[in-house]
Design brief:
It holds the Pfam family Glyco_hydro_12. It comes from Pseudovirgaria hyperparasitica. Belongs to the glycosyl hydrolase 12 (cellulase H) family. This is Concanavalin A-like lectin/glucanase. One of its GO terms (molecular function) is carbohydrate binding. By secondary structure, the protein is mainly beta. The chain has a single domain, classed as Glycoside hydrolase family 11/12, catalytic domain (Jelly Rolls, Sandwich), CATH 2.60.120.180. It is built from 3 helices and 21 strands. Strands 1, 2, 5, 6, 8, 9, 10, 11, 12, 14 and 15 form an 11-stranded mixed beta sheet that branches. Strand 19 and strand 20 form a beta hairpin. The N and C termini lie far apart (about 60 Å). The structure holds 2-acetamido-2-deoxy-beta-D-glucopyranose (4 copies). One 2-acetamido-2-deoxy-beta-D-glucopyranose (NAG) binds next to strand 6.
Length: about 325
């Protein structure tokens, strides 16, 4: 119980001081393979889908339903490093599943931190600051911090874990080399970059072990705070033929894929809010046009640059197995 209390002293500090920690305020510990707790419009899940004897993970949700904060503490030591768990928070919304053609807004507001559990109390837990960054390096941490959106042509399947046709990941942090975005090893000569909120994201694409097509929008440096509408990252894909507009977004999650650490790590989500919207009644519908990828030009005003250069990028099969986009030697062919 000792370490649990230590973990919670961070979030419950005020209540501890006020002597208001009662049974009601104690966090439930989610330490199993698929332990979940629903709180308001969100579900916390330990999601240790690939756990093994090399380590452990526990997710401690806060009872504070205004911040939706949680802490995931973990350590995995199997070699070579591989993903063991994705402790996360999921949005439950009446609007989901929503066809991407009917998605007008996906607002996020979140803040996170990560540090070795042993980092001296009082030092910053921001992984971009010293000495925490070096402390994380020193324990060989391999992990990421990602938003995970799952989509499928079938509304129900868009909510069924591992069954969805598409996974759209938004990477806000990447530590070590093990957690590499799928397709990064076949990156385009000139990348596709979109600016959303306070960040630039680069697109990678490929297929995962489940046969799901994975699109990853990746920041270059860890982004511990994000406030913005990521709809442009979603709409980009049907706009340029990478998936049909009538694909349903069914699952919205945020967490950390944990691979390896020599010592215990704490991943803090200090706040998380997501809001999915369809166009209000009477408002103009989503523009569902399909365009060719611009070649060496800009889209979306000055903020978003999109370039295509020569070289083979990726083949993406859509729907029942026909190739929709093939990018070869400087051009886009639609088959
Ligand atoms: C938090 O929980 C309380 C008590 O159940 C409820 O009245 C309140 O609406 C909730 N607030 C949020 C933001 O979910
Ligand atoms: C929860 O979601 C419902 C609709 O999906 C919304 O009406 C309600 O305001 C949300 N509650 C909070 C506390 O945000
Ligand atoms: C769009 O979403 C709204 C709200 O969820 C829903 O009422 C409406 O039927 C949807 N329209 C289409 C065309 O799917
Ligand atoms: C989704 O699944 C539910 C429950 O299994 C079923 O009642 C519903 O008809 C399904 N909807 C679609 C669109 O397949």
């Amino acid at each position: 119980m000792g370490y649990t209390k230590a973990v919670w002293s961070y979030l419950l500090g005020c209540r501890v001081l006020l002597g208001r920690v009662d049974a009601q305020n104690q966090p439930q510990q989610l330490c199993g393979k698929d332990d979940a707790r629903v709180q308001g419009n969100y579900t916390f899940n330990s999601n240790a889908w690939n756990q093994d004897e090399s380590g452990w993970t526990c997710l401690y949700p806060s009872r504070d339903n205004t911040s939706n904060a949680f802490i995931a503490e973990w350590r995995w030591q199997s070699s070579p490093p591989r993903v063991h768990a994705y402790p996360h928070i999921q949005l439950n919304s009446d609007v989901l599943p929503v066809s991407i053609a009917n998605l007008s807004q996906l607002d996020l507001s979140l803040e996170w931190a990560m540090k070795p559990s042993s980092l001296i109390e009082g030092l910053s837990d921001d992984p971009t600051t010293s000495p925490n960054a070096d402390a994380l390096d020193a324990i060989g941490i391999e992990a990421n911090v990602v938003m995970d959106l799952f989509c499928d042509a079938d509304a129900n399947r868009s909510r069924t874990p591992a069954k969805q046709r598409y996974e759209i990941m938004v990477w806000l942090g990447r530590f070590g080399r093990a957690s590499e975005p799928i397709g990064m090893d076949q990156a385009r000569v000139t990348p596709i970059v979109q600016t959303v909120g306070n960040a630039e994201f680069t697109l990678y694409a490929g297929t995962n072990g489940n046969g799901q097509t994975v699109f990853s929008w990746v920041t270059t440096a860890p982004l511990t705070q994000f406030y913005g509408d990521v709809t442009p990252l979603v709409h980009f894909l049907p706009r340029y033929g990478f998936m049909p507009w009538d694909t349903y977004l069914g699952t919205v999650q945020f967490g950390s894929e944990t691979f390896y650490a020599a010592e215990n790590v704490k991943f803090y989500v200090k706040s998380f809010h997501a809001d999915v919207k369809s166009p209000a009644e009477g408002a103009s519908p989503v523009d569902t046009s399909v365009e060719e990828l611009p070649v060496q030009t800009s889209v979306g005003g000055g903020a978003a640059a999109l370039e295509v250069a020569s070289g083979l990028w990726t083949y993406l099969s859509v729907g029942t197995g026909y190739f929709v986009a093939m990018l070869l030697m400087g051009g886009l062919s639609v088959l």
